[in-house]
Amino acid sequence: MRVTRREFLGTAAAAAVPLRWREARLPSADEMFSQPVLLDLGQHCSLGESLAGYAAALGAGVLRSDATSVPRSKTLIVPAAVRIPPAALDAIATCLDDGGRVILESGAGFTNETDFAAHRAVLRERFDVHVERRVDLWSNAIGSAIPYIDFTWPMRTKVRDFSRVVPIASGSGKVIAGVRGRSVAIRQCNGRGTLVVLGSPIGPSLWTGDAEAKRWLMASVGA
């Protein structure tokens, strides 16, 4: 049986994730608020390697939570989200209301039509963010050209694309990344907080140790 590179990375990441979090003393409320929280959507996360990538990049400086018990934090990261349960939406809203930052990575490029439609509807209705149909950049690559995402915020850098993107648009947001004339990431104010939506997952690049992806993440968390 042939196994694609993405399937291999996903399986390896799923096996490795539990080893990256160890039991430790419970942090204080102030410590918890200052640490980024990684929201694990379980079956609603379309890329296990994305979740593992953020965990690996942030190491001991990240708290992991499921949607039922999300601690308050100034930074909430939601990897490869497809369907977003009500509890997760509440956690996102709380973080934004507290003046925090939410990095919502869309996993819509790696799911079925039903889940894509649900994902698209939630982002449009709750956040006024519009998600377009996925684009497979690698199948349209010219010769051996490797697609790179051009980020302009919080720093200028290029991150190698994983394989698929979903173009992102927002009436009130600013474009912070693009590829081949398409907007694939936006940043917008939501109440007191800031919402960053990524249409091109960087979690898989983090999982493979991509230095530019990590630089972008650390700058985003600290910006």
3D structure, described in words:
There is one protein chain. It is globular, with a radius of gyration of 16 Å. The protein has 223 residues and is of the alpha/beta class. The strands form three sheets. Strands 2-1-3-4-13-12-11-7-8 form a nine-stranded mixed β-sheet, sandwiched between helices. The protein has helices at residues 5-20, 29-34, 48-58, 86-97, 113-127, 203-207, 211-222, and strands at 37-40, 63-66, 75-81, 101-106, 129-131, 135-136, 148-151, 157-160, 164-165, 168-170, 174-179, 182-190, 193-198. 35% of the residues lie in helices and 27% in strands. The model is unreliable at 14-24 (pLDDT under 50). It has a single domain, classed as Rossmann fold, CATH 3.40.50.880.
Descriptors:
223 residues; Rossmann fold; two-stranded antiparallel sheet; globular
